[in-house]
Amino acid sequence: MQESGGRVPDVMQSSESLGLPPNSITDPETSIDAGCKHFKAVLASAKGDINLALQSYNFGGGFTLWVQDGRGGKYTLALAKEFSVYMAAKMGWKSYGDPEYVNHVRRYLGGGTNSFSGNLKIIMQEALKYQGNPYVWGGSTPSTGFDCSGLTQWTYKQANIMLPRTAEVQYHASKIITQSEAVAGDLVFFSGTYAGKTITHVGIYLGNGKMYNSNDSGVEYSTITSGYWKEHLYGFGRVLGG
Fold first, then answer.
1. Would residue 36 show up in a list of annotated catalytic residues for this protein?
2. CA 21 to each of CA 14, 25, 117, 188: distance values in angstroms, whole numbers, following the listed order
3. pTM exceeds 0.70, yes or no
4. Residues 124 and 65 in one domain
5. Are residues 86 and 124 in the same domain?
6. What is the pLDDT of residues 32-86, one digit of tens each?
7. Which of these is catalytic: 51, 201, 208, 215?
8. pLDDT tens digits for 196-223?
9. CA distance 239 to 182
10. How many domains does one find in the chain?
11. Which residue range(s) make up the domain with 70?
């Protein structure tokens, strides 16, 4: 959808990945095959960083190498914008690629702000500014970076919802609800992610088994219905009302 809206034969705009001029592919199945192979290659180079892989699908694999060359090795929106400016100047072009590509793609997965409304839209508009940034223990502002509860406290504050500082206290300050009652905008809590208090992690629940959170992999979307997060899931809390 982001590449072509499904309106041209080269639906994944993958002709260039084969060294061909744009829109040389005239069969959608060939386009999808080539596009998936290209995405597989950039995902492998990105070492599992899905946002880095997504942006590299748009910019080309050189973006991954550039990010991994002394720039932290992880996707951030700031690095995408910097690379776009750098490459435009290098190529003598007015612009280079789409530095907002990650969010533009994720909106079709329910991960962009277009799928939200009201207070949650305000919260996610702020939260997505920090997507890809590293996790910072004790961080609670944009200038310091964010840990899990620092991110929720800061972003909900933008909607005039004041949360306590830590995940444990945020849990006890919430209206406790069941998983079946949870909707986008509720908080989702986890236990046992490190030794200490009962509640050790918190994220913004987005529905459909997804959350947005700051964890050891950085500020990102995560799935809570399988793997690590499912194993440590503790409960849900409501602070937006309803």
1. no
2. 10, 9, 40, 47
3. no
4. no
5. no
6. 999 999 999 999 999 989 899 999 999 999 999 999 999 999 999 999 999 999 9
7. 201
8. 899 999 999 988 888 999 999 899 888 8
9. 11
10. 2
11. 16-104
